[in-house]
Amino acid sequence: METQGLVLIGAGGHCRSCIDAIESEGRWRIAAIVGQAAQWGGSISGYPIDAVDADLPALRQRFSYALVTVGQIDSAALRIRLYQDALALGFSFPVVKASSAYVSAHASVGAGTLVGHGAIVNAGATIGENCIINSRALIEHDATIGSHCHVSTGAILNGHVHLGEGSFIGSGAVIRESLQLGEQCFVAMGIRVSDAVPALSRISGRTQP
Predict the structure, then answer these.
(1) What residues have CB less than 8 Å from 39, skipping those under 6 apart?
(2) Residue ranges of the domains in the chain?
(3) What fold, for 4-88?
(4) Is the model's pTM score more than 0.85?
């Protein structure tokens, strides 16, 4: 099967996870990795970090596809900026799905989203653009995930949950069915959320009643 070139924007630890998912899927050839100036000339998972942000216009002349491979915890701002800047240059963003992930044929996943190893996106779920659905996360039936969200490793979002744009759900957190969480929320790892969460909230206690 012929593979197409994919430019990775970001050269940190999350990039390493993205590379592994990309290799497992087998649809893409890593064409370039864009890092910070201090990272240029290094490598990650055997691939050279051979470009910086200023090289993106020239890379767009050679390649059509890109993926933001910067991680996201406290804020989605950097991922949003990189995504929007690359869109403005004319890059297209594929969905990248690790070979061990399951995405229902009855679910919808937006451009630029990564679905990591062992993750499950169940029937009727809708995921926005430029999201990270990390390893072994579960997005249950009819849940809605806004754009630019990170659902971390092992987190569970039950049926009909609505997660607002730019939010972060920590590893192992559990969100009760049918809850609404507003934009730019932060839920720490291991939290059980059982009530609605307003926009811009930070939930970091042991439980949220």
Answers:
(1) 11, 49
(2) 4-88, 95-209
(3) Rossmann fold (3.40.50)
(4) yes
